[in-house]
From TrEMBL:
<dbReference type="InterPro" id="IPR053888">
    <property type="entry name" value="MRM3-like_sub_bind"/>
</dbReference>
<dbReference type="InterPro" id="IPR029064">
    <property type="entry name" value="Ribosomal_eL30-like_sf"/>
</dbReference>
<protein>
    <submittedName>
        <fullName>TrmH family RNA methyltransferase</fullName>
    </submittedName>
</protein>
<dbReference type="InterPro" id="IPR029026">
    <property type="entry name" value="tRNA_m1G_MTases_N"/>
</dbReference>
<feature type="domain" description="RNA 2-O ribose methyltransferase substrate binding">
    <location>
        <begin position="36"/>
        <end position="108"/>
    </location>
</feature>
<dbReference type="InterPro" id="IPR029028">
    <property type="entry name" value="Alpha/beta_knot_MTases"/>
</dbReference>
<keyword id="KW-0808">Transferase</keyword>
<dbReference type="InterPro" id="IPR051259">
    <property type="entry name" value="rRNA_Methyltransferase"/>
</dbReference>
<comment type="similarity">
    <text>Belongs to the class IV-like SAM-binding methyltransferase superfamily. RNA methyltransferase TrmH family.</text>
</comment>
<dbReference type="Pfam" id="PF22435">
    <property type="entry name" value="MRM3-like_sub_bind"/>
</dbReference>
<dbReference type="InterPro" id="IPR013123">
    <property type="entry name" value="SpoU_subst-bd"/>
</dbReference>
<dbReference type="GO" id="GO:0032259">
    <property type="term" value="P:methylation"/>
</dbReference>
<dbReference type="GO" id="GO:0008168">
    <property type="term" value="F:methyltransferase activity"/>
</dbReference>
<dbReference type="Pfam" id="PF00588">
    <property type="entry name" value="SpoU_methylase"/>
</dbReference>
<dbReference type="InterPro" id="IPR001537">
    <property type="entry name" value="SpoU_MeTrfase"/>
</dbReference>
<keyword id="KW-0489">Methyltransferase</keyword>
Length: 267
């Protein structure tokens, strides 16, 4: 069903409002159990991963091009808007042609994602959705089996993460710890060796610590890095050696290097 919408305040398109307003989006998406996928590839990957489509929003020029996609989405309602209305609703130009409002699914438990995994990444309190998306993309590309998030880590299904991950948030299994303080004990109970990634000079170079077996790479937040609690809980602090002129790597860059070294060492 295709429904033209001429007014950006029309309540039928409330799923799509103010995409740049992070706080509003967090409460809207959490409350309604939805997330937004942008662009054909990402929407297709979300559908293939089993997420239901609530509706789609696009301008007229994309309607024919996305005919197959609309069919794949199961005869979903498509809201058709002008470029001006699109920008009025979302607050920016949607270059990838279409947005889809998708249904969230219940996350698996930490135990479920750890079972059968050998290499995992654990993210403590990352705040930047771009970094979270980039780390999912690295994990998918480099053969990491799963990602575990601290209770306060940014949402992988936030639009920006979904987009930057290019849909890897749908292919890499992930779960969220319920408990920050004692959460790492659950990984250890599953036989994982915990390597805390830190730029600190006192840490050992990561290559020296990769001994095979089940390994979890712990990565810290953009500002403060890993908490003293998680550093103390880890089996070993490891670093990627850097030039002395730089304090630290961006967390997604650190993740890419560490994931490559971890999975390459196991090949
Ligand atoms: C921007 S850094 C945080 C910097 C923070 N001042 C610190 O000392 O950890 C974010 C995360 O990236 C990872 N990281 C950055 N540079 C690293 C390096 N050279 N070796 C290992 N991990 C690194 C760590 O997990 C860190 O918690």
């Amino acid at each position: 069903m295709v429904i033209p919408i001429e007014d950006s305040t029309d309540p039928r398109i409330a799923d799509y409002v103010r995409l740049r307003d992070v706080d509003l989006r967090k409460s809207l998406e959490g409350g309604q159990g939805l997330f937004l996928a942008e662009g054909e590839k990402v929407i297709r990957r979300a559908i293939a991963a089993g997420h239901g489509v609530r509706s789609m929003l696009m301008t007229a020029k994309w309607l024919d091009k996305f005919g197959d996609l609309i069919d794949d989405a199961g005869g979903v309602t498509v809201y058709l808007v002008s470029d001006e209305v699109m920008e009025g609703i979302t607050g920016f130009q949607v270059h990838r042609g279409a947005l889809a409002s998708m249904e969230r699914r219940e996350l698996p438990s930490v135990a479920e994602v750890l079972r059968g995994s050998r290499h995992v990444v654990v993210l403590e309190d990352l705040v930047d959705h771009t970094n979270v998306g980039a780390i999912f993309r690295c994990a998918a590309a480099l053969g990491v089996d799963a990602i575990v998030l601290s209770p306060r880590c940014a949402d992988p299904l936030y639009r920006r993460s979904v987009k930057v991950s290019m849909g890897s948030v749908f292919s890499v299994p992930y779960a969220r710890l319920k408990d920050w303080h004692d959460g790492l004990a659950e990984l250890r109970a599953h036989g994982f060796r915990l390597l805390a990634l830190t730029p600190a000079e006192s840490a050992v170079p990561i290559e020296e610590a990769l001994t095979g077996g089940r390994t979890a790479l712990l990565l810290g937040s953009e500002g403060d890095g890993l908490s003293s609690r998680w550093l103390a809980e880890a089996d070993q602090a490891v670093r990627i050696p850097m030039s002395r002129e730089v304090d630290s790597l961006n967390v997604a860059a650190a993740a890419a290097i560490a994931c490559y070294l971890l999975t390459a060492a196991a090949r």
